[in-house]
Amino acid sequence: MSTTREEAPSPPRPDSNLNALHKEVMMTYCFESRHQSALCGQSPEEVVLTNQYIPLSIAENMEMEGDGTRSPNTLEDTLRTVLLRNRDQARVVMMLGPAGVGKTTTMQKMLLDWAGREELEEFDFIFPFAFRDLTLLEQEMSLEDFILVQHGHFTSESLAVILQSPQSLLFMFDGLEQYQYRLESTSHSALCTKPNQSAPVSVLITSLVQGELLKGASILITARSTASLSFLSDIECNHVQILGFSPPQRKAYFDQVFTDPKNAEQAFQYTEQKMGFYGLCGNPVFCWIMCFLLKETLETGDDLPETLTQVYVQTSASIFRAHNLEEGRARDLVLGLGKMATYSLGNSQLLSQKDLADSGLQQFLMSPLLSAFLFLYGDPASDNCMFSFISPIVQEFLIALLYYLDITWSGGESVEVLLGKLEGSVKFLDVFLSGLSDAAQRKPLEGIVGEFSKDRTEGLREWLKNTTVQSLQFLSYKRPLSYYRLLHQSQNPALVKEISDSQAAGLGRYYSELSAWDSAALNYVVMCCGGRDELHLHSSLNITGEMTLHLIPAFRLSRKLALLQCTLSTASYVHLASVIHKGRTVELDLSYNRAMGDSGAKALFEGLRDCSLQILRLPVCGLRAACCEDLASVLALPSTQLHVLDLRSNELQDEGLIQLCRGLRSPHCKLQELRLQDSGLTHLSMEVLSQAISDDSSTLATLVLDGNEVSDLGMDWLTRALRSSKTSLQHLSAFDCNLTDACCEGLAVALLSEGCSLTELDLSLNDLGDSGVLQLCEPLKFQGCSLEKLRLVNCQLSEATFRELGAVLRSGNSRLTALDVGLNKVGNTGAKYLWQALADNHCQLEHLDMEMINLTDGSLEDISAALKANTSLKTLVLKNNILTDASVPSLVQLINDSRTIQKINLQYNDFTEDVFEIFETCGRVKY
Ligand SMILES: Nc1ncnc2c1ncn2[C@@H]1O[C@H](COP(=O)(O)OP(=O)(O)OP(=O)(O)O)[C@@H](O)[C@H]1O
Prior knowledge:
Blueprint: H1 16-26, H2 44-49, E1 57-58, H3 75-84, E2 91-96, H4 103-115, E3 125-130, H5 131-134, H6 143-150, H7 156-162, E4 169-174, H8 201-210, E5 218-223, E6 238-244, H9 247-257, H10 261-275, H11 284-300, H12 308-323, H13 327-346, H14 353-358, H15 370-373, E7 374-377, E8 386-389, H16 392-405, H17 415-422, H18 429-436, H19 439-449, H20 454-473, H21 478-490, H22 493-502, E9 509-511, H23 516-528, E10 534-538, H24 545-556, E11 560-564, H25 570-580, E12 587-589, H26 597-605, E13 615-617, H27 628-635, E14 644-646, H28 653-664, E15 673-675, H29 686-694, E16 702-704, H30 711-723, E17 731-733, H31 744-752, E18 760-762, H32 769-780, E19 789-791, H33 799-810, E20 818-820, H34 827-839, E21 847-849, H35 860-869, E22 875-877, H36 888-897, E23 903-905, H37 916-920, E24 925-926
Parallel strand pairs: 2-5, 2-6, 3-4, 4-5, 9-10, 10-11, 11-12, 12-13, 13-14, 14-15, 15-16, 16-17, 17-18, 18-19, 19-20, 20-21, 21-22, 22-23, 23-24
Antiparallel strand pairs: 1-6, 7-8
This protein binds adenosine-5'-triphosphate.
Adenosine-5'-triphosphate (ATP) binds at residues 41-44, 47, 52-54, 56, 97, 99-105, 175, 224, 284-285, 288.
């Protein structure tokens, strides 16, 4: 027996001359031969051959390499990596990206680099195909014949040898959407396995992709979208999404197109600022159009385009001018192109001679003007010549022109019907329709193709006005923005004014994700109305620097700016600071901008150094101690106007508050209200705080410390401040601050001291108990005690305290007008004391809250006596008790009879639906 394994015979090597010949032929291969036009740029072949190719960017969702490093993210590197990875397996790569983003150009570059022996040397043969050409191959054929039809420089014999080494082959297929047959994920039995086996071309391609035919060959396909990729569902396939030019790449492009670097810079900056928000600047063709247009306008000194419509109007007007077509013929051409564009939307991207004739364009077949708008494939004189629009956006522009030039077209349907019909297949049609409704914008074209229908331009304006007003009326928050884009496009300030006059309220509020385009449009609308007093943007999660930049003029005109629950970039805070700096904004509310953090805050505080801001709300903004020093120095500035500062729910901790107190202690500080709920504070910072509020110069009237570990130790410091005649504190809230009865004696003394001007005190959710609150009741019975509102919700109180509180209210000395004692389970017997007090004419209570104190129907008699006699109570809260239907008729009668009660809350008692009718007879009951 032989010990050596029998080796499989290696496939014969193709003749190296053949390889060289193929490369030579490929040096002249071109995916698309076309004329250069202002609307489509240089051909891919020309770009590559003249070394004008600029690397493109891709989406960064490429998988990680085995060692955890990220794949390179330029398109060319990525393609090389995925094509050469794991050479034992079939590699199918989809290159995806919108029209004009550079797919064909990239293929062309790869092919020429390979043929010039620079790249992809691992492949002996690359076979390029354009799907468009394959559409003509209707008959069945073998793979060998399929290649020979397109690449006639091989013989059958030489090709047979080449196909024996699939791993050294790369097939390129460009433009899937131009293939008229669908590629299906066919069952394996229906696929081809041998290069000489005949099948429809679509089956040959699917067999290659599925690895049934020429297993091991590599395949690269380009497509505009993933819409028709179901044939790839069973196989492993790399998707590479092209984004186009990044900002530095487009800068390089502008530098390349303009000979004068100054003009290049000016044109680049102008394009970024005026057109950046349309989302088109990454597209090489759009960059080309802008370069073409700006070159012309910079030379002639004409007006630069402000809108997308102007870009396409001016570019096409320039094309028409260059060809000097008389008006009637120019109009016929545009009408024909518009009709064919509409037909192509609903049918095929690839159009035939018949489609051209049906649209009345036959007369223009030989005109170079036709190829400014259409790609022509093949000999125009032959029946096989095919056409496609140079881009979907040009197609939509032509449809918009048709709408205004032919009112009989498509049954004379309204703009609403037209847009509804084409929804989903157009992106910019409404934009162009709006832009073209403006006489100034359409003027350059009107001079060439004749007048636009007045009925239609006026109809568009009327439609735009009505739909915008409606969207504002019905508070559909997202839609107004889409109409603002159209208003911006129509550049008609009078129209915006009309809308704002009828819908003033809605114009200042926006609840949705904003885009850069929305920001520019919003700014336009606000500026047309001369600004808004209040501007509210809610829930926009990605406000970039660019977006804030667009909004600066509108922001600067607003006295109140509220950007709630948004996420702003650091650059946005810098821009916001510039808005506030020396501006007229008096209130800025950035609540729930969780990502702000100290860095965002520091950038913002720069703007506070010289401004009119009086109210600053920064709750839940991810702030920490690090930003407090800057804030303190702002508070200490002689120019500061700030009197309300809301820093709730930021982890400032004692360290942060101690820093802040440096500002509070400044004689310049004018703060009247400081909100510090849930800030991670303890008693350790209370001494410094207490000193700050006892200062001569302190203006602080409201201090909210809810949810901090103030504890009795901390409260002792605060009561010292309250005793000081210098403090101006009127409202202290210490809800849930871990207080016990131990702090009550000090508080009681403070409440009686001469300097104390406290009118509101909230000690809810602290374990004060009867022993604590009974001590507090003492000062309340004296006339000198200024307290008017007291909240003692959930303080573990019992009947004894209620009895004492009743005595306080009846004493005739108490100034209490509001008392909250809910969630202390005293039942009817405890509540009785307060009902009795209410019946007493010394009691001045206007608000009483006894939520969840276990009140039952048994207290009805007491309630009745109290409400009949009382003449001061305005609001009564009895929700979450155990009252039943039995009490309802009497309660409702009492409220109906009362002259003072404005609202009684009876929610969440034990009522059935049977009594809802009775409740409804009284508008003052909440149930
Ligand atoms: N990398 C590049 N560098 C310079 N110019 C480019 C580049 N890519 C594309 N262009 C320009 O943009 C034009 C359109 O590119 P291309 O035809 O490759 O786009 P595409 O993605 O194949 O579009 P479609 O889906 O319409 O076929 C080219 O003709 C060329 O002028």
